[in-house]
Amino acid sequence: xxxxxxxxxxxxxxxxxxxILLLRLHVAxxxxxxxxxxxxxxxxxxxxxxxxxxxRFISLYNSAMKILYIGSTAAxxxxxxxxxxxxxxxxxSQDSFRLEFALIPCLVLAMITSLIRGFGFIELFxxxxxxxxxxxxLPQLIVLQRYSVVENLTGHYIFFLGAYRGLYILNWIYxxxxxxxxxxxxxxxxxxxxxxxxxxxxxxYYFQSKYYGGTFSLPTSSAGFK
Length: 226
What we know:
The chain is mainly alpha-helical. It has one domain (5-210). The chain has helices spanning 5-28, 36-49, 60-82, 86-89, 100-117, 121-135, 138-147, 152-178, 186-198, 200-212. Helix 6 runs parallel beside helix 9 (186-198). The longest helix has 27 residues, at 152-178. It is globular and about 50 Å long. Its main location: endoplasmic reticulum. The chain crosses the membrane at residues 57-80, 101-119, 125-144, 156-174, 186-207. It holds the Pfam family ER_lumen_recept. Belongs to the ERD2 family. GO terms for molecular function: ER retention sequence binding.
């Protein structure tokens, strides 16, 4: 994948989102409002997408970013699952999304896509990761809606995570116009737009809270800001 300003900005936005989440856990000393299920889904996404780490070297930047995503996400999961005070403050009753509701449909779609396109083992899991990433944020968004009030750093974490995907869409558009033999992958496009659309409601209330300067909260059944 060629580098351009949109891809680089997207990568940095993704990295920044992870740093913010780690900072939020360190500063707040609790896991309130953080979805472990979303982190587990993202770890599955990264592990299945980056299997090529085992068979080929693209660049130092490429390998470093992939290892960073896997390692940092695994570290966040370890903190919430096993370390205090995060373990005791993580509310499983609020983070009740069943992972199989995301994993099974995405695996079925990946198998169908792979059969149609004649993909091999590595490509099958790569395709699965594309489908899964599109919905991996759902448990986190559900948790935030249940808590209603969104902590500042948690809000920033999700904003930069959503911005990463939006910037990658701009990267695709830029490459389509600047690269003569650019390969269009409409599965990637569709999943990217679905993923971005899931953030739309969050973005609306996020920007509204910044504009009006109030407490950032998501609506349960009525207006979301106090």
